[in-house]
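Please, structure for the following, as tokens.
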Amino acid sequence: MEDATEGTHGCGNTSEPEGDRCSENDFGPSILGTKDYWEDAYQKELETFKDIGDVGEIWFGEESMSRVLRWMDKVKIPENAAILDIGTGNGAFLVELAKHGYRNLTAIDYSPASVELARNVLQAEDLTDITVKEMDFLNCQGELKDFDVCIDKGTFDAISLNPHDTEEGKKLYVQALKDALKDKGFFAVTSCNWTKEQLLDRFSEGFEFVQELPTPSFQFGGRTGNSVTALIFKRLC
């Protein structure tokens, strides 16, 4: 079900065709990188969910969840694995993970409206044993640790677009990820702002690249590229 029109939910940049490497500064700061933007967006989605039961937009589309789940099946991630959803949004991925049999799920988001929305969505699905916390991943004070798998669909992108202390935020993200994962734990990241090469460079210290997951491709001017990048890393001991 790969679809070349897979949603990017307002991403600031798309990956260059294969063979090209973008600089770290080829897109500027954006309102998409601010907490106020996401709080307002999820407050509206929360009101909509309460009115008509619509969970709202799924970041990168449903296929973005399916490809990570297929990878988890392939590498036989156990159902009792400790899994962290970084920047859970409306909690849609938590629902899919739970339906897939995973039962040790934790999610965080720095938006109070997102947390309330995710809890409402989970309650509607009768999934009451999933932990959802209001927490800024960059300032989690060591509260997150010993996870087997961390999943990010767009949160690192948003951090990269923050108008304030962008470079510091990216460094804090990498350190928080190291702290949250067990040794040899996996990190699945989906991005529409960063190329494979840029993500490999960003997570070069403390992580081992495992594989790239297939994403929709496009052709332009006789060259092929991808608008979304999905990579798997492993935390080094």
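The CA atoms of residues 29 and 161 lie 5 Å apart. The longest strand covers residues 181-191.
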